[in-house]
Structures are given as structure tokens and as C-alpha cells.
Design a protein that fits this description.
Blueprint: H1 25-41, E1 47-52, H2 58-66, E2 70-77, E3 80-86, H3 88-95, H4 98-106, H5 111-116, H6 118-134, H7 143-146
Antiparallel strand pairs: 1-3, 2-3
């Protein structure tokens, strides 16, 4: 796949709704993913947020999967898409044991889901993020656990 980093300003792409190849938008998407998510693609971090102005194209989704990573659209608003790019096994390990598990249970996550269904746990995180952004509820600080940050952070 070969994600390559370009300068930060190239992460403000637009109009990727169709096939993502018009006017170089596919390449801009790839640069944006590389810039924001290189530690995940290099297996250094379990997950990272990808925040872009439009939906990522199908080809880029395939590239992420080819890099043995996963993606989940956490939140969508006008001109703002927040994806979680993640390594499934790494996130499973983080959320399913010890004080991370206990903390997430206290935040309303189901223990069975935390231990057995990382996708469902991320769905619940997406719900909490949406509530935070749309209803002005408390920000889901547990997002840091999914990204590999210690609880103290």
C-alpha cells in the first residue's frame, strides 16, 4: 500500500463522495491517513482518530484493510467525519482486562461486549461521542483507552 506522508495542509480534501479519484482526491486521502494514522498503520499504536472533511472513498477503505487495520465512522456532521482507524486485536487486549475493563464498565459498557465484541464496543463509543457532540454531554474520555493511553491520562 505504501502510505506516504505529505504536508499537513493536504489533509483538507473535499469531494471524495464518488470514486475518490477525481482531481487527485484519492492521493490526498491517502496522505491524510498517513499523516494522522501512521502509528496505527505501522503497528505502533492500537488506534487513532482520522478527522476529515468528507467521507473516505471505497478504495481508501480497501487500502486500510489491506494494511491489516480496521476503520469505523464514529461521527458524521457537515464537513466533518471522524473515523477510528484501529488494530482489532490490540484494541481487544486494551478494553477486555484489568482496570481498563473496570473503568469502561463504570462508563456503561457491557462486560460481555468488552471481552467478546470489539466492534460493538466501538459502536457504543461512537454513540457516546455523538451524544457528546450533539447533545453537549460529557466528552467520552474513555476514548483514550481505545487509543492506548493509560487511564491516568
Amino acid at each position: 500500500m505504501g502510505f506516504v506522508q505529505k504536508k499537513e495542509s493536504d489533509c483538507s480534501f473535499e469531494n471524495t463522495k464518488s470514486n475518490g479519484f477525481e482531481n487527485g482526491t484519492y492521493e490526498k486521502c491517502r496522505y491524510c491517513v498517513a499523516y494522522q494514522c501512521a502509528p496505527v498503520l505501522a503497528c505502533i499504536k492500537p488506534s487513532n482518530l482520522l478527522i476529515v472533511k468528507s467521507e473516505i472513498c471505497q478504495k481508501l477503505k480497501e487500502d486500510i484493510i489491506e494494511a491489516k487495520a480496521n476503520y469505523k465512522l464514529l461521527y458524521k456532521a457537515q464537513n466533518k467525519y471522524i473515523y477510528l482507524i484501529y488494530r482489532k486485536i490490540a484494541v481487544e487486549r486494551l478494553i477486555s482486562t484489568g482496570e481498563n475493563l473496570n473503568y469502561l464498565k463504570n462508563m456503561g459498557y457491557d462486560e460481555y461486549i468488552l471481552k467478546n465484541d470489539v466492534a460493538a464496543a466501538i459502536d457504543y463509543l461512537a454513540l457516546r461521542l455523538r451524544d457528546s457532540l450533539e447533545k453537549k454531554c460529557v466528552f467520552p474520555h474513555e476514548m483514550g483507552i481505545f487509543m492506548g493511553y493509560p487511564i491516568e491520562d
